[in-house]
Design brief:
Two copies of one chain form a homodimer. By secondary structure, chain A is mainly α. Chain A has a domain of 98 residues: Winged helix-like DNA-binding domain superfamily/Winged helix DNA-binding domain (Arc Repressor Mutant, subunit A), CATH 1.10.10. Chain A contains seven helices and three strands, in the order αααβααββαα. The first copy, chain A, has a three-stranded antiparallel sheet. In chain A, strand 2 and strand 3 form a beta hairpin. The longest helix of chain A has 21 residues. Chain A starts with 15 loop residues before the first helix and ends with a helix. At the A-B interface, helix 1, helix 2, helix 3, helix 4 and helix 6 of A face helix 1, helix 2, helix 3, helix 4 and helix 6 of B. The first copy, chain A, binds a DNA duplex (30 and 30 nucleotides) through helix 2, helix 3 and helix 5.
Chain lengths: 156, 156
DNA sequence: GGTCAACGTTGATACTCCCAACATAGCATA
DNA sequence: TATGCTATGTTGGGAGTATCAACGTTGACC
């Protein structure tokens, strides 16, 4: 049922100048992940996941440390933490040793929420990598890790 | 000159749950590319680059075809084409064979603009991949290409 | 001729990132 | 002690991108 002329989908490739660009490829992969994620959970759950995962792995953290760990701006952390605190997924209290800091800790509810998001995340990850073998997935992860680590030292 | 306690930067890693996620890695690589790009040109030049590259490789295209080639929404293409046309980087005329379509073609000015952006883009690409060997860069490109091609067929 | 689909445009909404303030709080040195 | 600099958390504005919905125009199919 195509009233309009259809072109061969094989030829529907992006231009070579874009296919050669790592940053363009990365943005498209990221977008695919975003679209798949949106089908399983609200998009804000991705930011929640990052904060909850950091707290679960490293224990209590200040909001500034959370931002440095995750590469997110302070104002983003502020919003995410406020939302998670409202839903009782974490505790927030002023550090008595440094009263500028808000020390944030995971609650039992937050841990449950984290594992729930983890489950959906695993689904998305498998769907995203469906075309790659296990060895290729490891290679891809290693290469991206190496690329990112070569830039991690200089940006907050 | 650090009045505050400093933590070892080696330990400043994102949580393992994020490091394992391809979509998170991809978004961070994309963000790095965006930041580097912003230091060489206005960010809108990235969208311009995509449209100009498609026209240069495939010749005249309708706006809808441009959107399908580049994975961009029609309204985005509309804005980009309007901007490029305003700056005389492309011609836009109604297709006489199908008067719904706007056929877009590259001008000499547009070709020059494309090559100018290409130059900055090469710089960013090299800076982004500075930590990888030539073989690793080829591997990474091949893996991302394979990942993307396994999803290309089903989304516009 | 009527129905449906494609096209281009405009608008609204959401998410992310960046930058700039601001008030509070701690450190460092004079 | 007093001054200045930095860190922290919060709030707000702005830009770029993506999604969805409408609308009028145009073409194809029945």
């Amino acid at each position: 049922m195509e009233p309009e002329p259809t072109y061969s989908d094989d030829g529907m490739q992006p231009p070579a100048r874009l296919r050669a660009l790592t940053s363009w490829q990365a943005s498209k992969v990221s977008l695919l992940g975003t679209r798949m994620t949106a089908q399983h959970m609200p998009l804000t759950a991705r930011a929640d996941f990052a904060v909850l995962a950091a707290l679960e792995e490293y224990g209590e953290l200040s909001q500034a440390d959370l931002g440095r760990r995750l590469g997110l701006d302070r104002n983003e952390i502020s919003g995410i933490v406020t939302r998670l605190h409202r839903d009782h997924h974490l505790d927030r209290h002023v550090d008595p040793d440094n009263r500028r800091r808000n020390v944030v800790t995971l609650t039992a509810s937050g841990k449950r929420y984290l594992e729930e998001i983890q489950h959906h995340t695993d689904t998305v990850q498998n769907e995203l990598l469906v075309g790659l073998t296990a060895a290729e997935r490891r290679q891809l992860n290693a290469l991206l890790t190496k690329l990112l680590s070569s830039h991690k030292t200089q940006s907050a």
